[in-house]
Design brief:
The complex is a heterotrimer. Chain A contains no helices and 7 strands. In chain A, the strands form 2 sheets. Chain A has a 4-stranded antiparallel β-sheet with strand order 4-3-6-7, with no helix packed on it. Chain A has a 3-stranded antiparallel β-sheet with strand order 1-2-5, with no helix packed on it. By secondary structure, chain A is an all-beta fold. Chain A has a single domain, classed as Immunoglobulins (Immunoglobulin-like, Sandwich). By secondary structure, chain B is mainly alpha-helical. Chain B has 10 helices and 7 strands. Chain B has helices at about 1-15, 25-40, 55-65, 70-85, 120-130, 140-155, 170-180, 190-200, 230-240, 255-265, and strands spanning about 110, 115-120, 205, 205-210, 220-225, 230, 275. A 3-stranded mixed β-sheet of chain B has the order 6-5-7. In chain B, strands 1-2 form a two-stranded antiparallel ribbon. In chain B, helix 1 (about 1-15) packs antiparallel against helix 2 (about 25-40), helix 4 (about 70-85) crosses helix 6 and helix 5 (about 120-130) packs across helix 6 (about 140-155). Chain B starts with a helix and ends with a strand. Chain C has one domain (about 1-140): SoxY domain (Immunoglobulin-like, Sandwich), CATH 2.60.40. Chain C has helices at about 30-35, 40-45; strands at about 50-55, 55-60, 65, 70-75, 80-90, 95-100, 105-115, 120-130, 130-140. The longest helix of chain C has 9 residues, at about 40-45. Mean pLDDT of chain C is about 85; it is low at about 1-25. Classes of the chains: A mainly beta, B mainly alpha, C mainly beta. The interface of A and C includes residues 71 and 75 of A. Strand 4 (about 55-60) of chain A pairs antiparallel with strand 6 (about 95-100) of chain C.
Chain lengths: ~100, ~280, ~150
């Protein structure tokens, strides 16, 4: 079970801006452990879906080149304060996380 | 050249120790004058932002990071850890003034009863020991997270480290830390001051060197290089390694004395941790 | 009429009629594009066409990265009908870094922090109104001094 996503969702006029920061190692699978020299297994978010009041407003596909503890920001129209923003991610090892936030 | 004279007075201060001429306040003032003379356009509190006070391209990226900084994860984790009760029912709040909120500026201090410098990180493990809990590793992870939370609640508070005049052991600890700072070490034979006093503001390969003034204000730090949040002494160990000097144990007497000296040099600046760095 | 693969977002239906779109993404992660070792190959795999350089695609990314592990980038455009924004780091082992599928309600602007293994050209690709547009920038990734 992945850690919760930190979401900041603000609406100004007709534009809602969502910023999210999510704890995740985003291991590429190319790095080696400093002590054992073993390859650290790849573990990274492969897909992310953002919904506004249950409707998808963005889908992202990621590779391991997204930084550790990923940050993403995106915007859409048609939201009002009080609406629900939901973000869900899945990774290559089958972990996932879903967090909801209120549009402010 | 005014700056060279000031630089010399900072270094000579090292050798004048023990006499009535140079004490912590004189050292701090000399250092402050050196940096403000060398960087007259930098507002005083900006020194607390390290290299970002001097490097525009880096500063822009830092500002972007600070918009939603990764250390927020540590602050959140740290708050949960801080508020959780020990097995015996007590909590960290019972160990600290004001329940541990907004008190980072009290550290480090010279504990007369212990006869040693106590840093915030040491105090966290002292609290655990007093409540029959195992100590946490000092460099990253849970302890750094607790420190991140406590530092976050202390943001904006002014650093005011004291070296009590009536305690020769405290002065000795300060002087020991200062000695460490000015002593060359490692294969590269650098002292802390080589980069951070003499070459502050200049480039070392592709890194811009920060000033000693402001070094202690912004810990713990999420270093992009670490991919996690770590303590000041984690960085000191890294700096030692980078000049190919043998690092000491975290929270060793020498490092605590060093942190005592280092934080004193930032007296008057506001705490602004945790922070993002490259 | 030829049946083209459509852009299908989970839970929504593709509404518009299609003329000659660049090859579109399926409602599944384009794994082969993400595995491609070559930037042009990854782009061809994703879109089936070469992008047109356009000053209507804007990319904000530093000239010199503070640390290649965390490089903030923002891609935005004033083009209309933007279906997706993708980011490619040419010299990375697998150049395709991220693909963002947008919707009619999206403002065509995304920000993300990416890893760059070394100095490289970074390309931003915008799939809009049936065409593929791009912009690129050279970003230096340095070896630090004592900072590492």
């Amino acid at each position: 079970m992945g850690k919760p996503i930190k979401i900041r969702a603000k609406v100004k006029g007709d534009i809602s801006e969502v910023k999210a920061l999510m704890p995740h190692d985003m291991e590429s699978g190319l790095r080696r452990d400093a002590e054992t020299n073993e390859l650290i297994p790849a573990h990274y978010i492969t897909e992310l879906v953002a919904e506004h009041n249950g409707e998808i407003v963005m889908t992202a596909y990621w590779g391991p080149a997204v930084s550790r503890n990923p940050y993403v920001s995106f915007s859409f129209t048609g939201g009002v304060a009080g609406d629900t923003i939901k973000i869900h991610w899945e990774d290559n090892q089958g972990d996932s996380s879903t967090t909801e936030a209120v549009l402010k | 050249m005014n700056n060279k004279i000031l630089l010399l007075s900072v270094i000579i201060g090292l050798f004048a120790g023990g006499g009535a001429t140079a004490g912590p306040e004189e050292d701090r003032t000399a250092m402050l004058e050196y940096y403000t003379g060398r960087f007259p356009d930098v507002p005083l509190q900006e020194f607390a932002n390290g290299l970002y006070a001097f490097d525009e391209i880096a500063r822009e990226q830092w500002i972007e990071m600070e918009d939603f900084p990764p250390y927020e994860i540590a602050i959140e984790d740290g708050q949960a850890l801080f508020e959780a009760r020990f097995a015996n029912g007590k909590s960290y709040a019972d160990c600290f003034d004001n329940g541990g909120i907004g008190i980072r500026q009290q550290y480090p201090y010279f504990a007369a009863d212990l006869g040693e410098v106590v840093t915030l990180e040491l105090a966290i493990n002292q609290c655990r020991a007093a409540n029959d809990e195992q100590p946490l590793p000092y460099l990253t992870g849970d302890l750094a997270a607790i420190s991140a939370y406590m530092s976050y609640t202390s943001r904006g508070n002014t650093i005011n480290v004291e070296v009590p005049q009536d305690n020769p052991s405290a002065l000795a600890a300060y002087e020991s830390g200062k000695q460490y700072y000015y002593t060359r070490r490692g294969q590269l034979n650098f002292a802390c001051m080589s980069c951070h006093v003499q070459s502050a503001g200049l480039m070392l390969r592709a890194d811009r060197l920060s000033t000693t003034l402001g070094h202690a204000t912004h810990w713990p730090v999420y270093r992009a290089k670490w991919g996690e949040t770590g303590t000041l002494q984690n960085r000191i160990i890294e700096c030692n390694s980078q000049v190919f000097a043998k690092p000491l144990e975290p929270q060793s007497i020498e490092y605590r004395n060093l942190e005592y000296f280092l934080t004193y040099m930032s007296n008057g600046l506001e705490l602004n941790g945790p922070a993002s760095r490259r | 009429m030829k049946v083209h693969r459509r852009l299908v977002l989970k839970g929504t239906l593709a509404l518009s009629a299609i003329a000659a779109w660049p090859r579109l993404l399926l409602a599944a992660r384009p794994d082969s594009a993400f595995s491609a070792n070559d930037a042009d190959k990854a782009i061809a795999d994703l879109f089936g066409q070469t992008p047109l350089d356009s000053d209507q695609v804007k990319m904000k990314i530093p000239d010199i990265a503070e640390n290649g592990a965390v490089v903030p980038v923002t891609v935005s455009t004033d083009l209309e009908n933007v279906e997706s924004i993708s980011i490619v780091v040419v010299n990375n082992p697998t150049p395709l870094a991220a693909v963002f599928l947008l919707t009619p309600r999206s403002i065509p602007s995304v920000s993300v922090r990416i890893k760059m293994g070394q100095t490289s050209q970074v390309r931003a690709l915008v799939n809009a109104g049936g065409n593929l547009y791009s912009t690129s920038k050279d970003v230096k990734v340095t070896i630090g001094g004592c900072g590492g």
